[in-house]
Design a protein that fits this description.
42% of the residues lie in helices and 12% in strands. The protein folds into three domains: 140 residues, P-loop containing nucleotide triphosphate hydrolases (Rossmann fold, 3-Layer(aba) Sandwich), CATH 3.40.50; 173 residues, P-loop containing nucleotide triphosphate hydrolases (Rossmann fold); 75 residues, no CATH class. It is α/β, with parallel strands linked by helices and 432 residues long.
Length: 432
């Protein structure tokens, strides 16, 4: 059965073909069918006599791609950039790369150096690195597909309900602020030492899933293997079939567990980050996030595991880690660029929090959170006021004034010109 692409997928492939002699990065949200586009393009190029190598980051993703390419009539096999690096002797014409936001990693750079004449075509849902470094060293063109909201409206992705500590329909408890202030391994160590906190969050996850999860097939992402196992134990002790999986499991056992989940025999799969990139988990209807992450890519990949479209389906996302506070709404419009952007500086996340989250109508605790955001990132806020004034952006200035009202501050009064402009346009100026 040959792959048939949707109109939006064909447009992206055609854009690649129009620049086929250059390195292209295709950006399209998780669940939009990037693997199908990759397999389609691989067959097209192979039929034209080109030697094509396909690379993917994990065994499971490679197996999924292999199935797609075989179904599409191709005999090609997906490679692992580490496992197969030294095994290929022929120089390929094209390198097709899944999860291409990894392209700046040393392993991929060595691959590109090995085949300097090969044209690279990468696919990614989130072309952003944690260090803010761009992908312009690896690609010449960026081709951006439909937005998340457009894909939802066109029944390509499922619509969703999002619950987090910062939303009006909140979870009962959240990750403690004292833990959110530390990152990486320091977070894991702090949580592991606090048995009382562990009991609270375990109980909260269980209670919230019963209330909000609607008994849906669920994937839980934990901050550590130990916590993942404990989550699974808590669910099982309460009569809910749950299983922990990780990379140390035998491949056959892991495969059988995933198949049992797809058959509905297992209700909840608990893991750290095994089921993130590229996994086709269309049977999942709910995601539980208990792992704070500064990585936008990881956040989006995990949140979207439940958003594969099925008629009548509404995905449930339970964000106990409050990742939305840093990264914003999952259906916001991203200004993707090959140059990257510095989102990990001293004030990481504030720009996205103030500006993009309000543009996307995100709901959060404005009275407390915004006050802290504006205090800590005042330079950005002032810059946006000045920009709105300079451009005569009435809607933008109105939005900024609304932020001030919600945060119960009065910074616009520092600018007489801004104050006058606001009054002239009938804005409600905050007085307290």
């Amino acid at each position: 059965m040959k792959i048939k692409l949707r109109a939006d997928q064909l447009m992206l492939v055609e854009s690649v073909l129009q620049n086929i002699k250059e390195d292209n990065l295709v950006v399209s949200p998780s669940g939009s069918g990037k693997s199908y586009m990759l397999a389609y393009l691989e067959k097209l190029l192979t039929e034209q006599g080109y030697l094509v190598y396909v690379y993917a980051p994990t065994i499971e993703v490679r197996e999924q791609l292999d199935k797609l390419m075989k179904a599409n009539g191709s005999n090609n096999k997906t490679k692992g950039v580490v496992e197969d690096f030294n095994n290929d002797n022929d120089a390929p014409d094209y390198l097709l790369i899944d999860e291409a936001h990894h392209s700046e990693a040393d392993t991929y750079q060595l691959l590109f150096e090995k085949y300097p004449k090969a044209i690279k075509i990468g696919f990614s849902a989130t072309p952003e690195r944690l260090d803010g470094k761009g992908l312009d060293n690896s690609y010449q063109n960026i081709i951006i597909g439909k937005s998340v909201r457009e894909l939802i409206d066109n029944h390509i992705l499922s619509d969703y309900k999002y619950y987090a500590p910062s939303t009006s329909d909140s979870l009962h408890y959240s990750i403690s602020p004292k833990y959110l202030e530390v990152g990486g391994e320091a977070f894991f160590k702090a949580v592991r030492k606090d048995s009382s906190y562990q009991k609270k969050i375990y109980a909260d996850v269980l209670k919230t899933w019963i209330e909000k999860g609607e008994n849906k097939q669920t994937i839980l992402f934990a901050p550590s293997i130990a916590m993942s196992k404990t989550f699974a134990k808590e669910f099982n002790q309460n009569g809910i079939k749950a299983v922990h999986i990780d990379g140390a499991m035998r491949k056959a056992d892991r495969k059988e567990t995933l198949e049992a989940f797809r058959r509905g025999e297992i209700k909840i799969i608990c893991n750290v980050d095994l089921i993130s990139e590229g996994f086709d988990m269309s049977d999942a209807n709910c995601v539980i996030l208990t792992r704070p992450t500064e990585s936008l890519a990881m956040f989006m990949q995990q949140a979207f595991r439940a958003m594969r479209y099925r008629e009548g389906k509404t995905a449930i996302i339970l964000d106990h880690a409050n990742n939305i506070a840093l990264h914003g709404e999952i259906d916001q419009i991203f200004d993707w660029s090959l140059e990257g952007r510095n989102t990990r500086g001293d004030n990481a996340g504030y720009e996205r929090t103030v500006w993009e989250r309000f543009n996307s109508n995100a709901v959060f605790d404005k009275s407390v959170e915004l006050k802290e955001v504006i205090k800590d990132y005042n330079g950005f806020y002032d810059e946006k006021i000045e920009e709105a004034m300079r451009l005569g952006n009435i809607d933008g200035l109105k939005m900024l004034l609304e932020i001030e009202k919600q945060a119960r501050i009065k910074s616009v009064g520092k600018y007489s010109w801004a104050y006058s402009f606001a009054l002239q346009n009938g804005f409600d100026i905050p007085t307290k």
